[in-house]
Design goal:
20 strands; four-stranded parallel beta sheet; alpha/beta; 3 domains; Archaeosine Trna-guanine Transglycosylase, Chain: A, domain 4; 508 residues; binds calcium ion; Rossmann fold
């Protein structure tokens, strides 16, 4: 058997996670002299010292909770042995008290992208077809398939066609206060940099979400931007499809006239997310993403991280890191909004961890949150953006979204994301049609088992094959390569998860 190994993240920690594949049996002896009292699965925690009932269980240098009963040195620290503490109170948070100094600028890093007239840059050259309502979705999918088959071969510089279909648009309380979130999400999805500023929409006609309500900028006065299926001129299904193809062809001609040009790394808008996390996520994949995030910030790029319920228990660390008090207050405002949203639904943050998270060794939401915020690296938090809004500034940005993979991904796309980095422990074949997704595994075993789905193995950090710094630089370079057109695995297979709108407003 391999030498028993554990990972202790912080000198204050009184627990550490078992590294060895398949876990370790009772009696396993670590180099430091610690002996396991019972079998501990891989990724799960063992106590490094005796912990009395009521005493804090510490990982990442932070309190995960209090010991529900006495935990002996070498015991398996299971979920039920830790009582979940109260969430940090939002009215007693440090505001920009530990703002990190800017790190030296990184010059000279570029990617080959598509320059847009509004100053943004695309990493892909896609035709996006916006829809106002679910009623038109199958028709638009049908038309998109014909566009791919019949038109795209004539436009080799265009990477693909994306039908922006969703379940919103009718049967909803469209004037309710929170309805603004799905509506502005749809508007900003249409304006994603990977669509090159070309906008077209398909509407049914009688739906609540009328095309004008989207508030999309009318770029060309001489050219209508929406096909309305209920218009008199459409005498059959074939007429509707033909109209969509006509609209698409004009835009494909303009998109096809573009080619990749060198763009500074500062044109990247990278969204970070995790899904199917395990106890290694916080020591390998997320810190590697965080290191790459620091490099991107130093290169002038925009880096977003999200997932309110996964930062809620670490928010005191983030509010202290805010660039100024205004940013810190904006962060706390978004947390309070979400606390209230969960309360109205009869839930709280403990609803977040999944059975897979727990199988992977994450005892509770505090442990998950501490690992999750490692994605944000060490830069100052420059901005906080509400769900559905577009990010406008550079630097590290918190985009307040649910942690749900599909909803977070959709909101990051609406925020203007042109490349997604997705870290995973348990594994997911997740992908997006609108932007490349670089998938990062927290363990080498997952990267080895799914070599044709995982783009980057951060597990090398736990096994000692790579330092965090090496892995962070490698991931940064892979991000630039993927932004320049190198296909990710989910693109290779065409794995495109559906858009999922965040609609906190009532359905009628
Ligand atoms: Ca997620």
């Amino acid at each position: 058997m391999n030498q028993p190994l554990y990972v202790r993240v912080h000198p204050r920690d009184n627990v550490a996670i078992v590294v060895n594949d398949g876990g370790l049996p009772a009696g396993a002896l670590f180099a430091c002299g610690l002996e396991l009292l019972e079998a501990v699965p891989q990724g799960h925690k063992t106590a490094l010292a005796d912990i009395d009932a009521g005493q804090p269980v510490v990982r990442y240098g932070e309190v995960l909770g209090l010991a529900a009963t006495r935990i002996a040195r070498g015991a398996w620290v299971r979920e039920e042995l830790i009582d979940l503490p109260e969430a940090p109170p939002l009215d007693r948070m440090p505001l920009a008290t530990a703002t990190p100094a800017p790190q030296p600028a990184l010059e000279g890093f570029t990617f080959d992208g598509y320059r847009n007239t509004d100053g943004s840059a695309g990493t892909r050259n896609l035709l996006g077809i916006t829809t106002t309502v679910q009623c038109v979705a199958p028709t638009v999918e049908f038309a998109a398939e014909r566009i791919r088959r019949e038109l795209l071969p004539r436009f080799p510089n265009v990477d693909g066609v994306v039908a922006l279909t969703h379940t919103y648009g009718c049967g909803v309380a469209i004037n309710a206060p929170h309805a603004e979130i799905p509506i502005r999400t749809l508007r900003n999805l249409a304006l994603n940099p990977n669509f090159g500023g070309e906008v077209m929409a398909v509407s049914l006609g009688c739906e609540k979400l009328q095309p004008a309500r989207l508030g999309l900028p009318i770029l060309r006065d001489d050219e209508p931007f929406a096909v309305r299926l209920q218009d008199e001129e459409h005498r059959c299904f074939g007429d509707m499809v033909a109209a969509i193809l006509r609209f698409a062809e004009k835009r494909l001609e303009r998109l096809n006239a573009r080619t990749r040009v060198p763009c500074p790394a500062s044109d990247l808008v990278v969204g970070l997310q995790c899904g199917g996390s395990d106890a290694f996520s916080g020591v390998t994949a997320n810190p590697a993403a965080g290191f790459a995030a620091d490099l991107l910030v130093r290169a002038g790029a925009t880096v977003m991280f999200s997932e309110v319920t996964e930062v809620r228990d670490a928010v005191h660390l983030l509010s202290a890191r805010a660039a100024n008090e205004e940013v810190a207050r904006a962060l706390l405002r978004e947390m309070a909004w979400y606390d209230d949203y969960l309360r109205r639904g009869g839930a709280d943050r403990s609803a977040n961890p999944t059975p897979g998270n727990k199988r992977g060794g994450l005892a509770n939401i505090v442990e998950k949150a501490l690992g999750s915020v490692a994605k944000s690296g060490s830069s100052a938090l420059s901005a906080v953006v509400a769900p559905g809004e577009r990010v406008t500034g550079k630097g590290l940005t918190f985009l307040a979204t649910p942690a749900s993979d599909f909803i977070c991904g959709t909101l990051q796309l609406a925020a203007g994301m042109n490349l997604h980095v997705f870290t995973t422990g348990e594994g997911t074949p997740y992908g997006l049609a609108m932007a490349p997704v670089v998938k990062v595994s927290s363990r080498t075993a997952l990267a080895a088992r799914w070599p044709d789905l995982i783009d980057f193995d951060a597990g090398r950090i736990a096994s000692g094959e790579a330092t965090l710094e090496q892995a962070g630089w490698d991931l940064f370079r892979l991000i630039l390569a993927a932004a320049s057109g190198r296909k990710t695995w989910s693109e290779h297979w065409g794995l495109n998860n559906a858009l999922a709108l965040f609609n906190p407003a009532p359905v009628t």
